[in-house]
Amino acid sequence: MTTSALTARVIMLNSRLRGGGTDTQCLALAQGLTEQGWEVLTAGPDSAPLSAEAPALQALPRFRPLQVAALAGLLRRSRARIVHAHHGDDYWTALLAAQLAQTRPKVVFSRHLAKSPRAAISRRHLFARADAIIAVSDFVRRVLAEGHRDPASPVPERHFRPPCFLDPRKIHVIHTGIDTRRFFPRDRAFTEAARRTLGLKPGETAFGVVGGFDLPVGKGQRIFLRAAREVMRRLPKSSFLLAGTGSMEATLEEDIHHHGLAGRARLLGQQPDPVALHHALDILVHPQIATEAFPSVVLEAHACGRPVIASRLDGIPEAWAPGALGHLVPPGDAGELAATMVGQAEHPSPTEAERTAAHARVAAEASLPVQARKVGDLYRRLMAR
Q1: Strand runs (DSSP E) across 54-169, as ranges?
Q2: What does the radius of gyration of the chain's CA atoms come to, in whole angstroms?
Q3: Residue 225: which H helix or E strand, with range?
Q4: Rounded CA gap, 41 and 71, in Å?
Q5: Domain map of the chain by residue range?
Q6: Which of 147, 144, 206, 200 is nearest to 172 (CA)?
Q7: Is 11 helix (H, G, I), strand (E, B) or coil?
């Protein structure tokens, strides 16, 4: 391993930096690579919500054709060896800029979605021209290489995801990592303080869904509230918390009223401290029924030593497997979800040893240093060609 390989410049292309999962994962990876000796620049907007957190930000214009020219100039000046795009909108920009730059950097795409590109031209040509594609789960790899059908799903986007034209040897499965130095089991005093902040009472079992709830189905919050109605009948000392924001807020408030959950189910909005939120919850529920590539929230809960009940869907089992506390359930089955929630609540909470072991497994398999090391190894192999 040469010094030049360790300190080679990498440009992380991100034209959004608005704060979604892909944006935060992009910046986390940049930090992890920096800690391992890579020189990372970020190419993106200078006035977006996360712009101030982007390492060595190089401002790009918002108009796409101008972005291509600006990125090509940056590649020439910096002589970066790698340009790494994370959003589908940025893939063509990275390819075209790399061709214009003449320095011919290697082009890497990360695919954070369990979907194929909508445009046929992109499915035909986009991934075939990249030097490497990082799939955040094996399920994402299968969607890109083989396609996927689920015609019985109530969610239309699941009915058919066509494959893309690509060399399967270019796809590398590297799971998204989380900061296990931040997400780890805390003591009872921390947990009790977190619960008090959310108004939870001693002896109350707190179930929660963490994630956005945009139309049409969010993260399955409506399934969660249907299950909560049955859970409350069997476990009257229960609370059902929905952390996040989205366009379904009015619908979810109506569901809470319709299911008789007033006073028991609450919309919390976006929570500023996810570590405290995970410790306030007794059980995280991830009842997704739409597409899901690899949910970091499942890793976070397990790293904090919390059990997770999640849908057996797409890349969710891969995110659940390292921690392995809780259960996987069929997606969309409110009755099965309710029975599993009751069963988990009636089961003794994970012991300190079980919480510590779950954190250790997540740290060993899906932490930021592990992800950054794997991505860095891929960069080196590409540069050696």
Answers
A1: 57-59, 82-85, 106-111, 132-135, 148-149, 160-161
A2: 22
A3: helix 221-234
A4: 12
A5: 3-177+367-383, 188-365
A6: 144
A7: strand
Q: Are 325 and 318 in contact (CB under 8 A)?
A: no
Q: Provide the Cα torsion 114, 123, 370, 373; round to 10°.
A: -170
Query: What confidence tens digit (pLDDT) does each residue in 307-344 have?
Result: 999 999 999 999 999 999 999 999 999 999 999 999 99
Residues paired with residue 242 on neighbouring β-strands, in sequence order: 209, 267
CB 220 within 8 A of CB 211: no
Does the 188-365 domain belong in CATH 3.30.930.10? no
Contact 375, 33 (CB under 8 A): yes
pTM surpassing 0.70? yes
Tokens of 70: 């600006």
Cis peptide preceding 216, ω within 30 of 0? yes
pLDDT for 250-261, tens place per residue? Answer: 999 999 999 999
Q: CB-based contacts of 217: which residues, under 8 Å, 6+ apart? A: 155, 289, 290
Instruction: Using alpha carbons, list the distances in angstroms from residue 293 to 22, 198, 345.
Output: 11, 30, 27
Q: Quick one: average pLDDT of 268-297?
A: 97
Name the burial class of residue 172, with classes exposed (0-12), middle (13-18) and buried (19+) by CB atoms within 10 angstroms of its CB.
middle
Fold agreement between 3-177+367-383 and 188-365: yes
What percent of the chain stands above pLDDT 70? Answer: 98
Burial of 230 (0-12, 13-18, 19+ CB in 10 A): middle
Cβ partners under 8 Å of residue 31, min gap 6: 55, 368
CATH architecture group of domain 3-177+367-383: 3-Layer(aba) Sandwich (3.40)
Cβ–Cβ under 8 Å, residues 272 and 248: no
Residue 8's pLDDT is 76
